[in-house]
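Encode chain A's predicted structure.
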Amino acid sequence: MLVVDDDQDFLSATGVLLRAEGYRVESASNGAVALGALKAQEVDVVLVDSFLRDSTIERFVSEVRSLNRDAQIVLLTGYATERPSRQLLKTLDIQGFCDKSAGPERLLLWTYVAAKARSALCQIEEGRRALDSVLSATASFHRRHEKGGLYSEILARTAKLTGAEGAILALFPDALGEDGDLLVEEVTGASARTVAGVGTLSAARDWTRVLAQGGFGVVRLCMSSRKTQIAPPWMAMPLRVGEHILGFVALKIERMPKVEVEVLDVLANQASVAIQNALYYEMAALDPLTMVHARRFFEVWTRREVRAALRTGAPLSLLFIDMDGLKAINDQGGHRVGDTAIGMVGKVLRETTREHDLAARLGGDEFAMLLPSTDLDGASVVASRILELIRTKSVLVAGQPRILSASIGVSVIHSRGPCPATVGRALTVEFFEELVERLVRRADEALYQAKRSGRGRICRAEGLEIPWTSTERPPAASAGELA
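Encoded structure for chain A:
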């Protein structure tokens, strides 16, 4: 509370009265001092005399509003005849007036009404901020397709919104379509930093013990009611899509979160849909052995990126990667060992892709990587890094470690600046199909030259340039495309 009046006796008596009711009170003898107090701290209610020696009440209220638009202002009048008109109340943007001569009970009544109104405004603002956070989180959830990153995002957003000191996400095996225990990821700390990766519940025994001390009851309640349950120090959110329960998020909280349970239910529902979409995306777009993209997805995406590259004028590079000696590994160690080797190469490609790159398994031990906005030299750097990492991997064949190796062919398409609008409108589907075919053929021929040259190396094809002349066709293939 901020009480503004030039009568020191009134200030003193009012301060004692309000403090006895549990309010925190600041006093000001004029408008300038009051505005200074408003700049220095958050004020909920301003009780101000209608007559200020250093300012008009109209100017004072306007200045208060410029500093604190939600403070509740109650005008104090010295006499009953000073009652402001209804129009004046609207013009001043104040919430009431009180005649000083009406006694302390009337003053306390107006103070209580103003405090309640301010509390309601704060709750509305908290709810708005929470809803904004949920909407922001929802957008980030649905932008992610890779499960691990999505799980981290869900936990980080949820922990931040609720103030949780720790959180765990658990998905049931039937939701994942695989055998095993619950899938678990853990975050701790105010920043909700991920400290433990995805694994089985046995890898999170500490969390299991902590939950057993009281958290499982809240989890069971949320699973049976299918609603978020809060019983500090525990909170549990079911991950539900329709009638199907995917799992839950359990959080360790010190106090009741300010966020309404209904808002948390919205967050949980959106997280559940995002998880299910990520699972469907993985089944449809990823190769199950290597967890890079499947061939069909790669073919569609390549056509999309070729169009984008021509539209913007940015280069687009393509790597074809083929393992060396996989047949010998299969013959001597068996296909299970061969699959392990293929999986290791897929892991290397996942580790070397940037956010907008695309890695895919074309079949067998053949892979491809699409590198938007990357020229021939940049693609060669990526290819060298891939070969280095592959050489650090090995499998056991007949009891002996076999170091993995691969060969890489590189091709690139680039144009002399963005495609002119007049040309772009005339380009046909066949034009783009031919460009894709040429890009792929050059990478494939470069790969086979790398194989013929001794394997375990990189071969670069001559860049395919689109000059944007009057012709709409790419330049004809030359006899010496490889460099």
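Residues 104-143 form the longest helix (40 residues).
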